[in-house]
Write a structure and sequence with these properties.
This protein is α/β, with parallel strands linked by helices. It has 20 helices and 25 strands. It has 3 domains: 3-243, 4-Layer Sandwich (Glutamine Phosphoribosylpyrophosphate, subunit 1, domain 1), CATH 3.60.20; 248-441, Rossmann fold (3-Layer(aba) Sandwich); 445-598, 3-Layer(aba) Sandwich (Rossmann fold), CATH 3.40.50. Helix 9 packs antiparallel against helix 17 and helix 15 runs parallel beside helix 20. The termini are close together. The structure holds fructose -6-phosphate (F6R). Residues 303-306, 350-352, 355, 358, 402-403, 487, 491, 608 line the site of fructose -6-phosphate.
Amino acid sequence: MCGIVGYVGNKDVLSVLLVGLERLSYRGYDSAGIATLAQGELFVRKEVGKLRTLGAALEGKPVRGELGLGHTRWATHGAPSQENSHPHTDCSGRIAMVHNGIIENYHELRQQLMREGHIFKSDTDTEVMVHLLERYLTPELNFLDALRRTLKDVRGSYAVAIISEMLPGSIFVARQGSPLVVGLGADENFVASDVAAMVGHTRDIVYMEDGEMAAITKQAVVFYNVAGEELIKQPQVVEWDTTQIDKGDYDYYMAKEIFEQPTVARSVLSRKLGPGGLINLGDLGHFSKADLSKVTRIIIQACGTSWHAGLVAKYWFEKYTRTYTEVDISSEFRYRSAILDPSTLVMAITQSGETADTLAGIREAKSKFLPVLSICNVEKSSIARESDGVIFTEAGPEIGVASTKAYTSQLLAIYLLTLYLAQVKWTLSPEEVQTKINDLKTIPGKMEIVLAQNDQVKRIAQRFAHSRDYIYIGRGFDYPTALEGALKMKEISYIHATGYPAGELKHGPIALIDEEMPVVCIATKGYWYEKMLSNIQEVKARKGMIIALGTEGDDNLARLADEVIWIPPVAEDLAPLLTALPLQLLAYHTAIKLGCDVDQPRNLAKSVTVE
Ligand code: F6R
């Protein structure tokens, strides 16, 4: 994973790099480092741990810089340590490099370079690249040619940025498989893994493609292809709004993003719904109504929370569009030789649009000549750009590592797609579609009602915060919510939590239940309700502590439960859009009570750009 940023210009280099790194911390936060050049001299500083450690170290002992690079790391090769932190330098200490990606043949290259006398200081794969560059920087080869030779020798993925004392006014960059964007300014230029690092500085962005390199100076950016030929690339104007990347009045991005959900839902529905049952999913690219009406099978591939959104989609697609739907985890899909025929619609669901396995899944489908329709939050992301059609979820930037508003906005997009497919396939009548749209429009207001129980959820979270484990159960539409609730709990509070379809409990997991086990039972009113009540009885009979999540006014449920959280009455298929919210709050307040950093939980990164 990792995030990289580079700047050359007249602003305070250190502060541009540190703010950029802060915005890229979602890509990893095991360590952070910077390299600057001032009057031809290279300075490198790096610290293990979150960015604030580096910030504090630099405050005590600042460095000068006319240009520089920054890096925030999610450790792949080599533990998080000072030596393994980026930037990495060559033997002479005159070249510094930051890297996002994985060099697969690093081991053999390292052995070879060591035999040639290169001294390695870290265990990373990255360091081989900087030594290779050093090897090729002979009087006969200029910097770019040496970089091209270096890139030819490595196998894997990279976005790299390099500065050196030999060419003190330039940043050199190259991309293969990891994102890299260049920001153009007046007498200043930027490079980063993501435009977020440049917000507030420029809106003119050039997206680099695989196999491209660039030389960036204060006055110009020159792009090259693998053959070293100059390329003309047009900048795109990117819209952003700085309030979206501020915490506002909240202590954590996660809290802000949880409470933003009604606003996001309202804005998505107002943009995507028109009069008379009109559903506007945006530009579906390759996918005409005629194509979609012929789809007989859907394969969804996604990871983590986005995979849970895919599980909800299966219930909706099969019930309302009568289309057989499979939901695969991308890291399985990409390797499992799935049967893909022309009537199969392959879908990807992703917040970031950069998840390596999901991207590979898309490429796998496309290699079999199948177009891919994606549900994605980030415009211009790799997945958005490589898909044949995209429905944007329009949730705005999600910065907290745990996905919250991105999840419910994925559900909204998928529900609208379900209705759209039902229209083109005539599996629902216009009246049925209209009724569902009317129900959907009540969701933002109902989300507000759910969030108003924040204090109640906080109290419950505090009561059970010292539990060793948590179990979440649900049936039907509530089953994926059980998985999602458990994922939220474990990723930010580090309490072990597992979600099950409630009917599976007695096939094994019920053995775990005793008087110390909180069991979150999602039991909204609908088709599965009675059966779910029986499962709750089974938990109660084994003395499990029942935290029920049900439909307001359900006295039976209230009687069974030790604690209860309500959602307002809602059409049963829309319950996942409401039930997710109190479970996000439950995880959030538990993590806060336990003193965890909810926005940057240990070992995680928001964007998983390595497989
Ligand atoms: C959990 C979470 C992750 C992501 C997963 C996929 O809260 O955020 O499980 O859902 O890494 O990421 P995207 O959706 O960006 O492909």
